[in-house]
Structure to design on (457 residues):
């Protein structure tokens, strides 16, 4: 039986996200990202299309690797200016009933105690529709903004993250019993003190002695997203993640990464099916193949190739302004993210990338594949991609906002549903239940979060 395909909208609380320069397109509204109506309209559109969620990216620095300065990023709106994604969620949740919210937050710069409360608050306000994309950061500019000279080494960041996860699990799962809140008006007892306990932690990186301030939320621990494809990132995902976001230009690159992630889960004693994998993709749709091809040509006229290289420089830690456009891109190790550099050097042994080709490819949709056509052609390609790679769903980038998502909702979703590859109605329940099935609002063993619930019992 063919599996239903999951869909996330991939966006960011900024102007230029994954398609540098397209904010200049006459139909694009992304420059209105500071207006609440912009996000409410998007939420309604995605729920109309029965999207599983909106995945909101975020960075806490600027892309200043290209040319050694933030000038190009500022001039071409490369993920700057950027506002806080968390503040969008309650408003978007108020006009939807089912849409999930995956929020990126960099744990390196977030003290675990107040962060755990913010996520519990969002889980309450959304009635259990919140997820957290766990990231450790990749920009030195973010480290400097936090008062550090540079970011911690790549693999060391994951060691710190493991301890951080233990601490927030304990706050979410161990501090309060399920029946701690009584709301007993006659007895004058709102919370039973005997059923609330402090979390005491003294580790290599964090110290804490406090009770969690929020009462238990519908999911307790939010749905856990993660996006690392490096060996250390995969190990972290195998232990903690429920949803993993992967990116790459071809099925030949993505398929082995998906297999490696599932094997990492198995190595941690978890089922490979305990992780849903989403791959990044950009879809350009119209009523016919010819009209869609013309739309792609129209979009390309607005691409900022310099902005694309500034984006890639930030992802890889390599200053592409120093390389000739026809130079071959060679692998360089850095303390930035590892995946983007692997995508254009050693992940696909059948292709050699030049700097010019990188700029052209990243200009529409970032480093993921771009599929163009009418609904039948795009549906064929999406089905083939999912079946060839083993992913569970797609993280869909926009080129022009909101046009990119509206065409998916109006043209692709009905075609996939007709083929039995897309849901015809939402599953009831929390985000975790919608993704993994009824009765699974809470994480269960052998996931490490559930061990702290067992300790409490």
């Amino acid at each position: 039986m063919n599996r239903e395909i999951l869909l996330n909208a991939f966006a960011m609380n900024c102007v230029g996200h994954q398609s540098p320069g397209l904010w200049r397109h006459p139909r694009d509204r992304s420059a209105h990202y500071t207006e609440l109506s912009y996000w409410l309209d998007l939420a309604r559109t995605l729920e109309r299309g029965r999207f599983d969620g909106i995945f909101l990216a975020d960075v806490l620095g600027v892309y200043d690797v290209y040319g050694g300065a933030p000038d190009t990023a500022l001039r071409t709106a490369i993920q700057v200016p950027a506002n806080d994604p968390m503040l969008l969620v309650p408003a978007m949740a108020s006009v939807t009933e089912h849409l999930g919210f995956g929020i990126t937050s960099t744990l390196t710069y977030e003290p675990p105690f107040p962060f755990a409360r913010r996520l519990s608050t969002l889980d309450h306000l959304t009635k259990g529709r919140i997820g957290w994309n766990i990231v450790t950061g990749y920009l030195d500019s973010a480290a400097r903004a936090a008062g550090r000279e540079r970011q911690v080494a790549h693999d060391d960041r994951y060691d710190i993250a493991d301890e951080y996860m233990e601490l927030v699990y304990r706050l979410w799962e161990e501090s309060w019993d399920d029946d701690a809140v009584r709301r007993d008006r006659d007895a004058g007892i709102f919370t039973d003190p005997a059923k609330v306990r402090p979390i005491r932690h003294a580790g290599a990186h964090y110290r804490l002695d406090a009770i969690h301030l929020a009462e238990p939320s519908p999911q307790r621990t939010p749905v856990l997203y993660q996006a690392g494809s490096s060996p250390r990132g995969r190990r972290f995902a195998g232990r903690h993640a429920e949803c993993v976001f992967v990116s790459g230009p071809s099925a030949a690159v993505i398929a082995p990464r998906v297999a490696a992630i599932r094997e990492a889960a198995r190595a941690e004693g978890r089922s490979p099916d305990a992780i849903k994998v989403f791959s990044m993709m950009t879809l350009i749709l119209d009523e016919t193949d010819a009209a869609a091809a013309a739309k792609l040509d129209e979009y390309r006229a607005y691409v900022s190739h310099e902005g694309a290289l500034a984006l890639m420089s930030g992802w890889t830690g390599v200053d592409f302004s120093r390389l000739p456009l026809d130079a071959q891109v060679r692998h360089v190790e850095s303390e930035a993210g590892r995946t983007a550099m692997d995508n254009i050097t050693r992940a696909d042994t059948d292709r050699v990338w030049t700097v010019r080709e990188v700029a052209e490819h990243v200009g529409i949709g970032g480093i993921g594949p771009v599929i163009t056509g009418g609904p039948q052609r795009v549906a064929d390609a999406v089905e083939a991609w999912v079946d060839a790679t083993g992913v569970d769903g797609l993280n869909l980038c926009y080129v022009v906002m909101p046009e990119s998502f509206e065409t998916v909702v109006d043209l692709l979703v009905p075609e996939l549903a007709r083929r039995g590859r897309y849901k015809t109605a939402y599953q009831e329940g929390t985000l975790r239940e919608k993704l993994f099935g009824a009765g699974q609002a809470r994480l269960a063993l052998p996931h490490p979060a559930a061990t702290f619930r067992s300790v409490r019992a």
